[in-house]
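FORM 12-B: Structure-to-Sequence Request
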């Protein structure tokens, strides 16, 4: 859907804190080309795969 894609491309901040995340797949942020602030605190992430932020 173009509307969702446009919204993702314009997203500048993404609060993902306090979600009990255990992994972030490679490419998960690929559509967030304008993202400049990301909150990941208070999750269960132990390591990040290569390419998560590419």
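FORM 12-B RESPONSE
SEQUENCE OUT:
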């Amino acid at each position: 859907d173009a509307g969702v894609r446009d919204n993702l491309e314009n997203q500048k901040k993404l609060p993902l804190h306090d979600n009990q995340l255990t992994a972030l797949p490679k490419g998960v942020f690929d559509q967030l080309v304008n993202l400049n602030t990301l909150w990941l605190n208070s999750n269960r992430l132990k390591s990040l795969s290569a390419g998560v932020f590419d």
